[in-house]
Write a structure and sequence with these properties.
Length: about 650
């Protein structure tokens, strides 16, 4: 914390609301103070513009516009903007005050494991993703702008240097680049050589921050801002596993993609970057997550490139102006920890082709000698970098060539080649699909060119949609990229209108653009019940089961059907039944045998009654026999003990 009785703002109440209590830090745009909000009775961080900027109405209008835009950001991992205004010569921004330390302190101390660093970094990306969704590009992501409170909650600070992508009056490729040299993206340094990047520029800077969080070292370093800026465009980043072997090679491809010099090769925004980080973290073993991150070496804490004075070609109003070195709380060795809460380190403004002007005192003829020498160097450099061996070269067309041939073509053109694979529906496996940058683009010799080689079409597993509704099945298939080309109805035991299956079948692996036929149940089929009466039980079963019926049997006496033969079916023959339903066979046990009563000697009436009660039909005798009350002299068949006949058969009587 810096306290100065000479500071006229200390003790002043700005706009009758914010009483300035103490000075925290100085940054590229102004100074930061702790102030008491008298209206809401809370402490805030008050950012006050430098006097020269506050006198520039164009800059003030832009600052206030960006402040209003930043106030729309409401996220747990973004420092909130509460208010903005002007009180005479004081142009200010009231923000959330975060008590704690910066990510720079964490990197300096090296008191975290890889897993703990990833937890902090994922919070950083959460906040940055919220800004990207709202249409903002931060443009100055660095450890000093990442605040960590006592509960280890991360908040991204200093969106005052960000510009709203939507509704901004400035072009992306402005003449003056705002940012810290160690974290500038290649397209910020040399916009004419790269496609516009927007949020991908923040991804690049965030990737460099993660590199530093995992290794304790900056990816690019140097004594002058232009040296560092040159490395962003032409240098090669060291693999993190080469600095800290315990990381293994797991992080190398992640950071190579995030920090690719070509914006289109990076994750599209912070949200996509976080998805990749989270996926990698889930795959890492505990022994890698538990690796302690070493503290930053003294040379990596504050570099000359990030702190020295640099002159720029154009200020906000079009005039030439110096950008002062920032004296932040994070830099002061005697600052208490609690005051390291809002002190961004220096922000360097660089022109598109940055140069550093050393202020030498003129000495007689030396200026002329230096001027001539500089002119000679400039002419030689111009020739070398335009029409000479260091001049730009055209990326050749290699589409359709075999991988080996394409690599040779690109190397012969003077480029370093990185080979990556990609899926393609049209280019055969092993052939070149495209290059990044694309063919026809101009690049310096030894620049990286990424060759994308086809692995063939994307293959996808067809999801199993059996028993789903037709709508749900269609949504599931479309979520995997498939299109339902047709729907077929098919009788099935599956409930009507539910999905029976697909063609190709669920679980099979096919091209992503394979048309899918959805097979939907039309309910069970209705089948005619055949006439199997008189057939043997076994033959009847075979016929019915062949039609898809289940068969049960029952037995009954039948005087006309031989034992073991089918009497009838239920449902009866000639009707229809659902396939898979049950048909019951009634199988004959033959005629039922009953005892024949002995009625010899009985009167005609008694004999007839006795036989009928036993279940027989009676033949013989006449009304005259009944009238005369004659008696039975014989019967056929004979009756008596052990004598049986089929129930319902006829017994003949003689009188």
């Amino acid at each position: 914390m810096t306290t100065s009785h000479a500071d006229p703002l200390i003790g002043r109440t700005v706009e009758g609301r914010y009483r300035v209590l103490e000075h925290l830090a100085d940054g590229g745009m102004g100074s930061v103070y702790v102030a008491r909000d008298l209206r809401l009775d809370r402490e805030v961080a008050l950012k006050v513009l430098r006097a020269d900027l506050a006198r520039d109405p164009v800059f003030v209008e832009r600052f206030q516009r960006e402040a209003r835009a930043a106030a729309r950001l409401a996220h747990p991992h973004v420092v909130a903007v509460h208010d903005q205004g002007q009180d005479a010569d004081v142009v200010y921004l009231a923000m959330e005050l975060v008590r704690g330390r910066t990510l720079r302190d964490v990197i300096r101390d090296g008191d975290r494991s890889v897993g703990e660093q990833l937890t902090l970094f994922e919070q950083l990306l959460d906040g940055l993703a919220a800004a990207h969704r709202a249409g903002f590009v931060h443009r100055d992501i660095k450890p000093e702008n990442v605040l960590i409170d006592a509960a280890d909650r991360v908040k991204v600070a200093d969106f005052g240097l960000a510009r709203a992508v939507t509704g901004s009056g400035m072009s992306v490729d402005s003449e003056v680049l705002i940012g810290t040299a160690s974290y500038l993206s290649p397209e910020q340094v040399e916009p004419s050589s790269f496609s516009p990047s927007g949020t991908r520029s923040d991804v690049y800077s965030a990737g460099l921050v993660l590199f530093e969080m995992l290794t304790g070292h900056r990816a690019f370093d140097g004594d002058l801002p232009v040296q560092v800026a040159y490395q962003h465009v032409y240098g090669t980043m060291t693999k993190p596993s080469e600095i800290l072997p315990e990381l293994t090679a797991a992080f190398d491809p992640l950071l190579a993609r995030a920090c690719s010099k070509e914006p289109q090769e990076r994750p599209a925004d912070a949200e996509e970057f976080k998805t990749e980080v989270t996926r990698l973290r889930a795959e890492l073993p505990d022994d890698v997550l538990d690796v302690p991150v070493p503290p930053a070496p003294p040379s990596s804490l504050t570099t000359n490139a990030d702190t020295q004075h640099t002159r720029v070609s154009a200020a906000a109003d079009g005039t030439t102006a110096p950008v002062a070195r920032a004296s932040s709380a994070a830099e002061a060795p005697d600052s208490p920890l609690v005051t390291r809460q809002y002190g961004p380190q220096s922000t360097t403004a660089l022109p598109s082709r940055a140069t550093v002007v050393e202020n030498e005192r003129p000495r007689r003829w030396w200026p002329w000698v230096l001027a001539v020498a500089a002119l000679v160097v400039a002419v030689v450099a111009a020739i070398a970098f335009t029409v000479g061996p260091l001049g730009p070269r055209t990326v050749p067309t290699v589409q359709g060539q075999a991988q080996g041939q394409a690599v040779s073509t690109l190397r012969n053109a003077g480029f370093d080649v990185k080979v990556r694979t990609t899926e393609s529906d049209t280019v055969p496996t092993g052939q070149a699909v495209r290059t990044t940058p694309e063919s026809g683009a101009s690049r310096r010799p030894t620049s990286d060119v990424t060759l994308w080689v086809s692995t063939g079409p994307r293959m996808v597993d067809v999801p199993d949609t059996a028993n789903a509704t037709q709508d749900d099945a269609r949504k599931t298939l479309e979520s995997k990229g498939f299109k339902v080309a047709r729907v077929e109805k098919q009788h099935s035991d599956i409930e009507k209108d539910k999905v029976v299956g697909t063609n190709p079948a669920g679980g099979s692996r096919v091209r992503h653009d394979t048309p899918i036929t959805l097979i939907v149940s039309d309910g069970p089929a209705e089948v005619d019940v055949p006439d199997v009466s008189g057939s043997s039980e076994d033959d009847a079963k075979r016929q019915l089961e062949a039609l898809g019926f289940s068969v049960t049997t029952t037995e009954d006496y039948d005087p006309d059907i031989e034992s073991g033969r089918v009497v009838s079916t239920d449902p009866s023959s000639g009707t229809t039944a659902r396939a898979g339903s049950t048909v019951t066979l009634t199988v004959s046990k033959g005629p039922e045998m009953v005892d024949v009563p002995d009625v010899v000697g009985m009167s005609a009436a008694d004999a007839r009654r006795t036989l009928e009660d036993a279940g027989f039909e009676v033949d013989g005798g006449s009304w005259l026999d009944d009238l005369l009350d004659g008696t039975v002299s014989s019967q056929s068949p004979e009756g008596g003990s052990g004598k049986q006949a089929p129930k319902g058969s006829t017994v003949t009587l003689n009188f």
